[in-house]
Each structure stands twice: as structure tokens, then as C-alpha cells.
Amino acid sequence: MAVATITDDPATVVGPRWWRPRVPATVGYLTALVIVTSIFSVLSDSAQSKVVLHASTNLHNLLQGRVVTLLSSALVIGDVGTAWLIMPLLACLLGLAELRFGALHMVRVFLAGHIGATLLVAGGLWVAVEFDWLPASVRWSEDVGISYGSMALIGALVFVVPNRLRIAWAAVWFTAAIGGVLLGQTFTNVGHLLAFCIGTAVGYGMIRTKTPVTRRFTRVEQALLTTSAVLAAAILLG
């Protein structure tokens, strides 16, 4: 009598793989954000303030050599209510970018925008403080969140939007980012503009060095793109 082996069952063969998400980097990062936000939400107001200041990529921390804040700042969203509203929108942006770019490149673009814009803003603030254009208290400003990395991904999506829409996509968000700077007049608004420019440069760089993903957007991807645009507008216009 034949005895079935474990490889005779197709479901068993693919069993170890069926649960693996198509967007592992997105799932991993969102999971970390949920865990951190859940812990953050049960802290007292004073404890929350301490966490935010400790994780911030402000001048004080960076000049003290706390380079770990370049990563920790992307795991803390200072307002808990905003965090829970933002994370579903962020999931759509990350998921779309990972589906189109791949996990590794999505992470690279996010970090390029997050870290690059942070360092450029910090450099500008340092000059402004040294020349007394801004008060020294700006050294301890709170600077955490996902907005820089998100805007870099919005810019990089120029790589996958249809060719006829690329200039419009870049122009609309660049104009909105400029508007954010003029209306908000904060270093964070400047950071959003810088991060978007970094991401757009990466996107156009990919167009020059890689074959763009020309397949049409599925309905799911169209919904993800629309939701990503909502997130970008919320970030830029506050």
C-alpha cells in the first residue's frame, strides 16, 4: 500500500510559504510602529515628552553624537491620535512602493529621504543658530515622525506613474511642498520639500538606469496610489 509523503500534498509543499506577505518590509515597519505607538500611548505626558526629545533628530542630539536618532526618530510619532490615523495611509504608500520597487529599494528610498532631509535641515539650523538668525532654543526642537521618508517615496513614484503623467506628478507635489514652506514657515516644512526632491531625484535616476515598470496599475494599486496622495497632501498642508 502506497503511503503518502509530505511532498505528495501540494498544500503542504507551499505551506511554509503561503503566509509570507508580498510586502515584508511594509509589514515589518508597520508592526514596529504599532508596537512603539501602543507603548507610547500608555505613558504619562511627561514620559512621552522625554521619549520624543530622546528620539528627536534635533541639533542637540546630533551634536552630542546620538546618530541612532536618525533611525529611532522614524519609529516615533509624537501625537498618538495622529499616529493611528496616519498609519493606514502610510501602509498604502509603503505597500505600493514595495510592490513596484521591491523591498530593498523601497527601504533605501525611505531612508535616503528620512536621513538626507534630516541632515540637510540640521545643517541649515546649525548655520542659522551660529549666526543668530534663529534662537538657540531650536537646538532642542522635537523632530520625529515618518513624513520625510514618506515624501521621498512620493517623489520616487515618478518612476512608476505613466510617462505622460510624470512631469505633472512631480510638478504638483513640488508646488504643494513649496506652498507648505510658505504657509508653515518651519524647518519641518523645508524638510518635506528636501525629502521630496531627494525622492524625485532617485525616481528619475531609476528611469535613466532601469527599465520602468510599465504594467498598468491594478485597481488595488490605483487605490493605494490615491491613498498615498491623500497622505502626501496631509503631510504637506498640515
Automatic annotation (TrEMBL):
- What parts of the sequence cross the membrane? 27-47, 67-97, 109-129, 144-160, 167-184, 190-207
Q: Which UniProt keywords apply?
A: Membrane, Transmembrane, Transmembrane helix
Q: Which GO terms describe its cellular component?
A: membrane
Cleavable signal peptide: none
**Organism in which the protein naturally occurs:** Nocardia colli
Localization, UniProt: Membrane
Instruction: Kindly provide the name given to this protein in its UniProt entry.
Output: Rhomboid family intramembrane serine protease
Q: Does the keyword Transit peptide apply?
A: no
The main location class comes to membrane
> Pfam families this protein is in?
Rhomboid_2
Membrane-topology descriptor? Multi-pass membrane protein
